């Protein structure tokens, strides 16, 4: 642990040789003065964290429902995260199922149709 002290002493000597001063080290992190005078974080209990999370959730829902800017942020984040949505493509293994290729093609179309029908119901639209 002596290396940092030696490095600091060496830096001080070099700075004084060049006619410069070294900035002093601040040890204010544990004190309540200066810019940290009003910074007093508290530890919360699990039940209080749940209450705060509920409050934040309620506020965000209200903002999203009543403020165009908040709704735009949520929409933008959704599009950038999810994209245009899940679009599965059915590809059943007809050999493993023991059916013909034509039957597998029909089954693929039926599964994709069922997905579109279900997802349209979730979105509240019918395609």
Automatic annotation (TrEMBL):
GO terms for biological process: virion assembly. Residues 16-44 are annotated as: Disordered. Residues 35-44 have a biased composition (Polar residues). GO terms for molecular function: structural molecule activity. It holds the Pfam family Phage_portal_2. InterPro entries: Phage_lambda_portal. This is Phage portal protein, lambda family. It comes from Desulfovibrio ferrophilus. The lineage of its organism: Bacteria, Pseudomonadati, Thermodesulfobacteriota, Desulfovibrionia, Desulfovibrionales.
């Amino acid at each position: 642990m002596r290396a940092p002290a030696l490095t600091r002493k060496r830096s001080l000597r070099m700075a004084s040789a060049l006619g410069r001063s070294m900035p002093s080290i601040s040890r204010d992190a544990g004190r309540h003065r200066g810019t940290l005078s009003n910074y007093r974080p508290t530890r919360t209990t699990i039940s209080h964290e749940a209450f705060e999370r509920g409050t934040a959730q309620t506020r965000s829902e209200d903002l999203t429902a009543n403020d165009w800017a908040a709704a735009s942020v949520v929409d933008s984040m959704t599009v950038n995260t999810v994209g245009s949505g899940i679009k599965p493509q059915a590809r059943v293994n007809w050999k493993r199922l023991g059916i013909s290729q034509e039957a597998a093609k029909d089954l693929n179309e039926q599964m994709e149709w069922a997905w579109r029908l279900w997802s349209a119901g979730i979105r509240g639209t019918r395609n």
